[in-house]
Amino acid sequence: MAPSRTGHAPTMEKLVKSLKGQLLEASIDSYIHLLKRRQVTGDDCAEATAHILRQVVAKSKWSDVDQLLNAVQSVGSRLVQAAPQEPVIGNIVRRVMGLIRDEASEERNADETMSESISELPALAPPTTAVHPARPQPTPFRPPPLSSVTSFHVSRSKSMFNLLSVADTMHSPQTGASTPMSQAQPTSMNSLRSEVLDGIEEIMDEISQADDQIASFAEIQINPTDNVLAYLPSRTVERFLIKAAAKRKYTVFLVSLDPPNTHSGEVPFAALRKKLNSYGVKTIILASNGLMAYMSRVNKVVIGAKVVYQNGGLLVESGASVAAQAAHALSRQVIALGGVYKFCPEDPSDNIAGEKGASSTYVSYSDGLKVDALEVENTVVDYVPPELVDVYLTNLGPQTRHHLATIMADHYKPEDVGFSLHPGELY
Amino acid sequence: MATESAVAPGAALAAPAGNQPVSTPAPTTAPAATPAEAPKLTPAQLKAKAKEEKAARRAQAKEVKAASGVQAPTAPDAKGGKGKGKQDGSQAGQQSQKSALAHRPSVSGRRPSFHVVEKDTRSVIPECFSHVPMAKRIPTAHAHKDVHPAVLAVGQQMAAFTLKDSIARLQATLLAFKKVLEAYETPKGNSLSRHFVPHVLNPQIEYLTECRPMCFSMGNAIRILKAKVNSFDIDTPEEEAKEGLLEMIDLFIKERINLAEFVIARNAAKTIEDGAAILTYGRHRLVEKTLLRAKRDGKVFSVSVIDDPYDNGGQEMAKSLSRAGIPVFYSPNLGGLRAEVQRATNVLLGVEAIFANGSLYGAAGTADVAVAAKTASKRVIALCETINFDRERVSVDALTYNEIDPEQNSAEHFRLLFDTTRDYYLNGVITEFESGTGNSPAQAILALLRKQEDPALN
Predict the structure, then answer these.
(1) Cβ–Cβ of A292/B367 closer than 8 Å?
(2) B1-7+146-262 has which fold?
(3) pLDDT digits (tens, 9 = 90+) for B196-250
(4) What is the CATH number of the domain that holds A352?
(5) What is the ipTM for the molecules in this complex?
(6) In B, which residues are within 8 Å of A319 by CB distance?
(7) Cβ atoms within 10 Å, residue A239
(8) Where is this chain compositionally biased, Pro residues type (chain A) (predicted)?
(9) Residue B328 contacts residue B283 (beta carbons within 8 Å)
(10) Is B309's CB within 8 Å of A258's CB?
């Protein structure tokens, strides 16, 4: 699957370069085209979306926060509708919108409670004391109390994992403080713009670092002599396996859905196998449709999630649910890998595997059968229900299903959850 | 005696015919000697190699001595000759200069090269699956001299998977055995009931087992056949015994294969209700017959076929059902499993065999379908002839009894042909024995089978 990962798809750098060189509207359009043609898929979508939104913030004309939010939301909706099969786009849009709200409220507070924010500054440094005295004072000045709380959550949750964001949250009140009181509105908007751009930069860093951070947990999850089954390993899973290989002697079973194309002479997973083998980790490629047959030999199944839904279900490559289900049937661990940016504050739609791929690759009509006589169902995505997943391994470390709601709340604002307004149309 | 049978490949090899096994030593010494072909040789391997060479020399000497007399009937035979031509082709040039030589000596000369090929195919099997047998093409020239040409042909077709499913293999084997019987003449001073099985039938069985591990139905049939031979008195006239055996084989094919298929299709078709959405996996003869029968009976239903992309039989079935006017949804692989299971009302699985503990032995992927269907609380029914029930073997995981797909076995990848579905993923089994409600668990049928004398015996 995922032929677009290689093939004609532009590399991330090329894509970003081409998007940068164009006018805003042109680069949005060309990105939408790439999405529609499935030439940008999976993890690249997240990064590319962040790039596009960064340009929206930087280049589009806006004079207040609401205009900015509207601009991001409208571009975001277009992107989501161009690629409903990639919910991660919506996640990034929500993150950016949340970021704008945070920065805006901080900016406002900085303006309105100049003196207080200065007095707060030393108190913020030791977090324990900061929580208590900070809260009662500013509340009257912050119009939406909910967002102020969540914004605090966000900054706190970020500060735990992302040193940059600590610098940033500490930084923003300072900028407000250093700005002269008599600042004009445009200046404040300019500083908001730069704050938001910095924030998007951070999201982009988070995306690009997520795989490495997830991989850093590999040696905890994978033990010597484990037999690990990886179903169509994604980039995240590959990095995880390689990192584990550096520390552990184990065996990897690699599975792909369809028979390897013998005509092209392409060796499946060649690069990954070479790396794993160089560490002395054995690889066995299972050229098989069903996986129950091998499961008694396997003790862990690693699945790369495209998206983690708020119920804990996973959007995955087509067929990955077969691996998860077989593991569950024999009580084997199922480890889902995915950065926090893949956490999607929505429930999976009923028709989640609705997207169909090309049927002609599978069915030959050369024997005179009418083309419409057979309903060919070639699914390209799959859904793993939450009860089949044992561990969610994120860039914030391993999580359980019960903790997912907290992570969602830390990263998204409730008012942005339904930003595309037509969640029903997503699928 | 009957239970000893030749079902287990090991047992079959351990009980070779009493007469001098000219070419049987080759396969038995081969595994020990194979490392000798590797570039680096340990002293032990050198020793093994020397040993093998010696054995080959001795065998050659013996063969040359025996060549004129005993070999004559097999070699000029039309089928044997044809098979050999094929084998020469498959050996691809490397031995071509030798094949020009007189055929007998060339056999021993060829032997090492044949085993080099064989070693390569087995050596790439991952260690944890190295116990699993794999079908292999045995050049007909390497077959035991006593193997009947009809059996040779069947063996080749089994190794090449032209004869694939259990019942097709059983039927071909039985028909070939009929040819063996017809050609059989009891040597002077012997009786058919004492001589036929060890000296004539067993070499055939060994050869077939070498080509591809025997399926359970073949084991069952051979056990019944041997019991029948043993039931003859020592001084039953040869003609009478032969007649009796040929008749038994005919009856067996009629009852246990043809009639069983008809009854199962009829019974299973009855379980299909109007408006049903049937899910099935791959192509199985019984499932196909059942669905076509249900259509003929006027039932209105739809079918989802999930295919195995390594086999593509499902596509053929989907097309054949579609031509019959049944609405068919076709998924090229298990990727669509979840969606298809949700759509389905019940699941029909055709299986290769059923173990003594009620587990199904089915095409790889069958278990995945059963698990998904059971999890979604869909009714899962297996279709199986009683001849495919094994009353001695128990299998819990898929690695106890299985076969490696020779087509997909390379350094790059690996595939098992079958998997094992535990009985708790099933609602019932439909065989030719019961009334067709599909509610009988496999264990009930096994109990019935245990009690019942094989009808063919009476």
Answers:
(1) yes
(2) Four Helix Bundle (Hemerythrin (Met), subunit A) (1.20.120)
(3) 999 999 999 999 999 999 999 999 999 999 999 999 988 889 899 999 999 999 9
(4) 3.40.50.10470
(5) 0.76
(6) 333-335, 337
(7) 23
(8) 135-146
(9) no
(10) yes
